[in-house]
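Quick one:
INPUT:
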């Protein structure tokens, strides 16, 4: 082993440890690892920046815009509600939901699909007295099934495609992955409507839990007529830094102020709504001039009226809020919304709201003004789970243009009229020229942090390839799997990729495994396409944890799920996908 190989492996292992321990955002960790390789001289500037001109990464960027145009057109809003049917047969409705969702996610980013349809499905379940936990995990899994069907189904497929093109391979065709993923997805849907349905918990959603527990964390106080607090600001009155309670709303003459600023002056008759640990209510009882309502029967509905509204938000993997307390993040002043409660692992966290350290997957109940949702609907910090009453595009002609453009792009790439990248460029140009989407609108949908992660991960993959680290790892890999032959090597590559996907990110997992797998295929003298397909399926087929894939994370809190629910249902699905993938890949590309 040379020094360069040892150094690259050391940096990659350090990066993996940091990703697993979530010491910072994934894109920042991967960018730092790339910077170390650049500054150490392992990579030249040209090689380090190669990922930023990678065709796969640029195609992902363009498809964010295309998917954004489809999302804002409103053409998808009624699809799922209609497909669910009456709900008389829950399993039938589940099947009717999963099939169209899988079809949609084959061509659109699955994250917005899950965000869009989670409140729709939850509302449908509530109207029929069905537990949303029976439908939300299948919603997430259906998008994963569909994402592996086509070249553009996930960013991971395009990243691997871009790597293949750089190495002189043909790359994936539009439906090549469906040779494996279609039978696997079909079996996955059958599993979910039979065995999986029985294993799915019958549990209350976060929405129900927040509502039923309201009296356990909401309290109210009124500023008395001759109170010494009259004329004082919130800060001066000592209401900003209470030990266990958090001021979320001030009601004055029927007008509501959410995210109450510290400089707001109090008047007689002001009603103050607090959230937090009710055992610390003595803190406000001891403040002279405040009349505390004991035994209050406040409900969540009482908090919203006119300008104030309640919104649920799920903290994302990419969020700057992760590992910070709500107070440290200055949530109230920055976002213009107060955190009423936090739901994690099927229960509300019974601590002072401001002191709760947030994690990816936490569901926040926010009290905000009406302009909060349009301002933060595309934030990278959280996913807002609320039905859009009106789509941004109201012109039906533009909705038709958005759909037609998507279909044309797919056809051009499918029949090799244009490469996928050029077809995406053409689609985006058409959307801009027809004003179906604007430049500012496009910016909202491009996930720059995802693109940064992909570009930097490609640079690290280049370091593995150029230094010989990938070949060194492949040598030892082949020695370990020598007795199992090629099929054993494919199985282990699948297993390693799926483990990486569960604990880091799917794109990073794919980029790390591709150069290693190419070296393995070269040494075994087999078609490397077998390994590329295996990695593409394994990197996306993430079912066993809520944190391995964004779609799972979005439904985690709203569905009232526990971590163990994903293990119980996801592990059998992972094994099913692995068996189907290994067998078909071996038969099609090796035998």
């Amino acid at each position: 082993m040379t020094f360069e190989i040892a150094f690259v492996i050391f940096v990659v292992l350090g990066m993996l440890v940091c990703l697993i321990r979530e010491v910072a955002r994934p894109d920042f960790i991967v960018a730092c690892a790339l910077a170390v390789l650049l500054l150490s001289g392992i990579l030249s500037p040209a090689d380090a920046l190669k990922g930023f001109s990678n065709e796969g990464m640029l195609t992902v960027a363009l498809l964010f815009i295309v998917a954004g145009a489809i999302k804002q057109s409103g053409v998808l809003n009624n699809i799922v509600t209609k497909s669910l049917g009456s709900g008389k047969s829950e399993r039938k409705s589940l099947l009717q939901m999963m099939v169209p969702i899988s079809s949609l996610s084959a061509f659109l980013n699955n994250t917005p699909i899950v965000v869009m349809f989670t409140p729709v499905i939850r509302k449908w379940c509530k109207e029929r007295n069905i537990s949303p936990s029976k439908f939300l995990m299948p919603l997430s899994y259906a998008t994963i099934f569909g994402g592996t069907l086509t070249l553009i189904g996930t960013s991971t497929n395009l990243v691997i495609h871009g790597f293949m093109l750089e190495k002189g391979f043909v790359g994936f065709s539009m439906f090549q992955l469906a040779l494996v993923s279609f039978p696997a997805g079909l079996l996955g849907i059958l599993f979910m409507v039979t065995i999986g349905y029985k294993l799915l918990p019958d549990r209350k959603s976060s929405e129900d839990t927040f509502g039923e527990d309201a009296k356990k964390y909401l309290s109210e106080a009124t500023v008395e007529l001759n109170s010494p607090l009259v004329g004082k600001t919130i800060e001066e009155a000592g209401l900003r830094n209470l030990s266990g309670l958090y001021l979320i709303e001030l009601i004055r003459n029927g007008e509501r102020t959410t995210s109450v600023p510290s400089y707001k002056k109090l008047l007689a008759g002001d009603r103050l709504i607090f959230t937090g640990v009710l055992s610390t209510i003595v803190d406000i009882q001891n403040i002279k001039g405040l009349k505390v309502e004991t035994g209050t029967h406040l409900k969540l509905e009482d908090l919203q009226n006119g300008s104030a509204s309640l919104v649920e938000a799920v903290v994302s993997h990419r969020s700057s809020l992760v590992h910070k307390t709500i107070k440290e993040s200055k949530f109230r002043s920055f976002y213009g919304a107060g955190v009423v409660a936090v739901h994690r692992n099927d229960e509300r966290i019974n601590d002072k709201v401001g002191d709760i350290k947030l994690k990816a997957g936490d569901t926040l109940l926010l009290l905000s003004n009406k302009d909060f949702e349009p301002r933060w609907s595309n934030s990278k910090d959280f996913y807002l789970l609320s039905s859009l009453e009106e789509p941004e595009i109201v012109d039906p002609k533009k909705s038709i243009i958005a759909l037609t453009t998507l279909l044309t792009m797919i056809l051009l790439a499918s029949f090799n009229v244009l490469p996928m990248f050029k077809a995406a460029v053409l689609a985006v140009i058409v959307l801009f020229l027809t004003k179906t989407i604007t430049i500012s609108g496009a910016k909202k949908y491009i996930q720059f942090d995802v693109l940064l992660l992909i570009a930097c991960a490609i640079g690290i993959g280049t370091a593995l390839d150029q230094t010989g680290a990938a070949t060194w790892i492949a040598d030892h890999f082949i020695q370990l799997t020598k007795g199992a032959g090629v099929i054993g090597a494919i199985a282990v590559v699948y297993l390693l990729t799926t483990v990486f996907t569960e604990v880091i990110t799917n794109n990073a997992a794919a980029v790390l495994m591709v150069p290693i797998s190419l070296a393995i295929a070269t040494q075994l003298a087999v078609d490397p396409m077998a390994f590329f397909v295996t990695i593409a399926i394994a990197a996306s087929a993430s079912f066993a944890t809520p944190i391995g894939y964004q779609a799972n994370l979005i439904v985690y809190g709203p569905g009232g799920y526990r971590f163990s629910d994903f293990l119980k249902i996801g592990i059998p699905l992972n094994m099913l996908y692995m068996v189907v993938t290994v067998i078909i890949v071996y038969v099609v590309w090796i035998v």
